[in-house]
Design goal:
about 375 residues, single chain, 14 helices, 12 strands, six-stranded mixed sheet
């Protein structure tokens, strides 16, 4: 399991071109007119991780199964979307299902590609997108208030907590601040999540630049990076056109092509790392003669819950996890060598799985 990332932006910023490249499909039309993406396009991509290839080589695995990342391409937002302008709430609702939101911002000039507002200003674009999401959140909360207030009068304690969160969230939103900035106590987290606020989701910024700026960025992307740094948000510079070209190349030709552009890796790799960091996700592995496989879990996941990602029976009957750090697994050429070197550990129910752990779960049927 990976995570689900919504791709959001104004029309004609290169959002669907990026989606097509990342998923290596043509499912999303990348046309030069607003609202060409009417329904959200969903695409799964394999998460590239060189460690998995190395494990498969050592374990002589017949099959290699990477973890997956889901991208959701949401139709282009415009001013007034929260009030139904353009395609409005038809696609705003789809954003509620994602774990994080990537703001794709146009950081290139091209006379052949019309900007919906007739100018290139990525920070204003980001403000437009965020404003529409905040307005949608305000409308959602205001609609719920009367029903929750009724339950509070009936003595419902959960409703009282919900109403407090609604009021605090509305106050923040009316100040022009996203809901993710609300200070939420640990005991309030579940109730806050149930509000399903669009602006409560973590955000990462994608600066879509021209081909010549892919390696170093440009003045437009520099302003976006500055804003991302102020917010403590991840930032990635990508050229959607280059990503589209990479997607069409055979694997053996991609490295050479990237080198000619001064790039060490595709933008997809950087985007995934930014997303993983944003959501505090890590990867653990299972490896054997049949398959080597990567699994994604939140940082801090205990061994039984990590086992449950594979199968619920593994979590229910969990006994222990035979654990080898990735570096030890490679250094000692696999499971047997690691055991002989004393690098295999037996971990119990309270073990917090680490990134790169190679695990074998023991469980009772």
């Amino acid at each position: 399991m990976g995570f689900k990332c919504g791709i959001v932006g104004l029309p004609n910023v290169g959002k669907s071109t990026l989606f097509n490249a990342l998923t290596q499909t043509a499912a999303a039309q990348a046309e030069n007119y607003p609202f060409c993406t009417i329904e959200p396009n969903v695409g799964d991509v394999a998460v590239p991780d060189p460690r998995l290839n190395k494990l498969a080589e050592i374990a002589t695995s017949k099959e290699l199964i990477p973890t997956r990342l889901t991208f959701v391409d949401i139709a282009g937002l415009v001013k007034g979307a929260a009030q139904g302008e353009g395609l409005g709430n038809q696609f705003l609702s789809h954003i509620r299902e994602v774990d994080a939101i990537a703001y794709v911002l146009r950081c290139f000039e091209d006379e052949d590609i019309t900007h919906v507002d007739g100018r290139i200003n990525p920070l204003e674009d980001a403000e437009t997108v965020e404003t529409e999401l905040m307005l949608a959140d305000m409308e959602s909360l205001e609609k719920r208030t009367a029903g929750v207030e009724k339950k509070v009068k009936q003595g419902d304690k959960e409703a009282k907590l919900t109403l407090e969160l609604i009021n605090r969230s509305l106050e923040l939103l009316k100040e022009g601040k996203p809901a993710r900035l609300l200070e939420v106590a640990k005991e309030e987290e579940k109730a806050f999540k149930m509000l399903q606020l669009l602006t409560s989701k973590p955000v990462l910024y994608i600066a879509n630049v021209d081909e010549d700026s892919a390696a170093e960025g440009n003045d437009f992307s520099a302003t976006v990076q500055k804003q991302a740094d102020l917010e403590g948000a991840p930032f990635v510079t990508i050229s959607a056109r280059i990503e589209a070209e990479i997607a069409l190349l055979p694997n053996e030709e991609r490295g050479e092509y990237l080198e000619t552009l001064g790039l060490e890796e595709p933008g997809l790799n950087r985007l995934i790392r930014a997303g993983y960091s944003l959501l505090d996700l890590i990867t653990y592995f299972t490896a054997g003669p049949n398959e080597a496989r990567a699994w994604t879990i939140p940082l801090g996941t205990l061994a039984p819950q990590a086992a449950g990602v594979i199968h619920t029976d593994f979590e229910k009957g969990f006994i222990r996890a035979e654990t080898i750090a990735y570096e030890d697994y490679v250094a000692h050429n696999g499971e047997t060598g690691s055991k002989e070197a004393g690098k295999m550990r037996l971990e119990g129910k309270e073990y917090s799985v680490k990134d790169g752990d190679v695990l074998l779960f023991r469980f009772a049927n």
